[in-house]
Design brief:
Low-confidence stretches: none
Strand content: 25-35%
Largest sheet: 5 strands, antiparallel
Number of helices: 2
Distance between the termini: 25 Å
Radius of gyration: 13 Å
Helix content: 25-40%
Shape: globular
Mean pLDDT: 92
Length: 101
């Protein structure tokens, strides 16, 4: 959870079971270009996304809080300081696909 408001990303909300939300999120990640799921535990998913041109790798982590029915999201570039908003756009695309699936 970022204390810096410019980096804050609202969690994904779900109303299903944890298992259903997890499978849905995995499906969304797998549907996206140049994505790879590195770790898929019951309450945690770590995925990477690789840029097409320069092959930069971004890490995206998802942590499930089933009591609150939310998935906290953390997305970060491995290299560089600014990603020109790529990580935020990706997370919002994940949110859109997750809500529409």
């Amino acid at each position: 959870l970022s204390k810096d408001e410019s980096h804050y990303v609202a969690p994904l909300a779900y109303e299903t079971t944890l298992e259903e939300a997890r499978e849905k999120l995995i499906s969304v990640i797998n549907s996206m270009k140049r994505s790879e799921i590195v770790t898929a535990e019951m309450n945690y998913i770590h995925a990477t996304f690789t840029s097409a041109l320069f092959r930069f790798v971004d890490d995206v982590e998802f942590s499930f809080d089933d009591q609150k029915k939310v998935i906290d999201v953390r997305s970060a570039s491995r290299t560089g300081y600014s990603d020109l908003g790529v990580n935020r756009k990706r997370v919002e695309e994940i949110r859109r696909r997750f809500l529409n699936l």
